[in-house]
Amino acid sequence: MRNNPTEPEKYLWRALCNSQLGFKFRRQSVIAPYIVDFFCPARALIIDGHTHVSEDDCMRDHFLERQGYRTIRFTNLDVMSNIDGVLQIIVSTAAAQPDRWPHPNPSPEGEGLSE
Fold this sequence. Notes:
The protein is of the alpha+beta class.
């Protein structure tokens, strides 16, 4: 799959790679027993396409939700004809998700500051 992405996957990946949206995404990540199209580990956010069998999508999304992941889906047409709208939804959804790895304050209570 990774070696032969669809045109919409390539198009979306160009917008997601290198943390261009402020969030780091991976392509074709394994979240057993599934492989997801795009994954933001810090926000437990999955971006996937629609399959033709929506019942399978529902079962998969429900399973992943129970594991703590949020999935958003876009059709190929969405990606190819409205990439700005797709990216806006991705950014707002990622921003609304809690950070899975809160960053500790590197200098709690002002420790390490010189006087």
